[in-house]
Amino acid sequence: MKYTAHSSTGAVPVSDCWMAGGDVRPGGSWRPWRLAGLILMLSFCGRALAIGECGAQFLKMGVGARACGMGEAYTSIADDATAIYWNPAGLGQVDRLEFTGMQNFWLLDMSHQYLALAVPLAFGTIGVSGAYSSSGTLDRYENFQKTGEFTAYDAAGTVGYGLRAGPVRVGLSAKYIQSKIDDKQAQTVAGDAGVLCRFETSSGYVGLGLAVQNVGPGLEFVEKSDPLPLNLKLGLAAKIGQVVLAVDANKPRDNSVRLGAGAEVVIAGLLALRGGYNMASGLTAGGGVTWKMVSVDYAFVPYSGVDATHRISVRVRFDPNPASGPYDPSMPDRPTMW
After folding, report:
1. Between the chain's N and C termini, which has fewer beta carbons within 10 Å?
2. pTM of the model
3. Domains of the chain by range and CATH?
């Protein structure tokens, strides 16, 4: 009998997995009596990514330490270069040239990297991003005997555009997706769309966002096509003084509705403290420090019974007017040269 486990890189034979000391990692020896432990681990991983019958599960990995520290409740905020992932309409409110890079120390020794660039134009903002997720080199086993090694990875490149008209922002993005397991490779294309409304108040703003992610044909491996993880997102956010509160609802194609909520407080425009809750992972926490054009952010996202993940982001915003003071991430609409 051959069991199959679905990971962020697709379907992996259970005989290619190693379990030692309660941990499960691709590549290594196999003990049949540890099958119960494997099943338990898979149940937790399924909770972590809401895994169902969809392919390209890495598209569900949240990006940007700020958003992840806030329980991934970012659909109605999306005011930086990572908006191209969360809600492309948010690109319309990025008014500075901005670059973001993130390293995600993911579950089971997998790694996930993300880069994004937002470039304001005369009308709207264009964004580009790249995501790469790798499981490294894995041992291949057949009939419980090691027969060699193989690699597995997922990658996506995205181009998006957001436009702002008064309190309304709209945006679209298109992405190219590629997955590879050993010598098998699959690719497809997909698109995202979103709208975001932000209404200014005497103490901040109220925002409402709606987005749909990963609309496109399935990812086909060996004549079998798995649908993409289509997701519908609705979010509400409010800024009151130096505090930002947000809540999101997600309806993925392969799971039930998932809620997330988060909060952020900015102190003196320099220090940000964040916390949140997401039904897929549980409690989240994080913070960040901003000095002039550079922000460094960290998010801690534990998955109960499996492992904790850590995200570190570096963001550079090229402010043409540094005399205007430190950048406050909850107030993106300052006058600029753009």
Report:
1. N
2. 0.79
3. 64-132+154-324 (2.40.160.60)
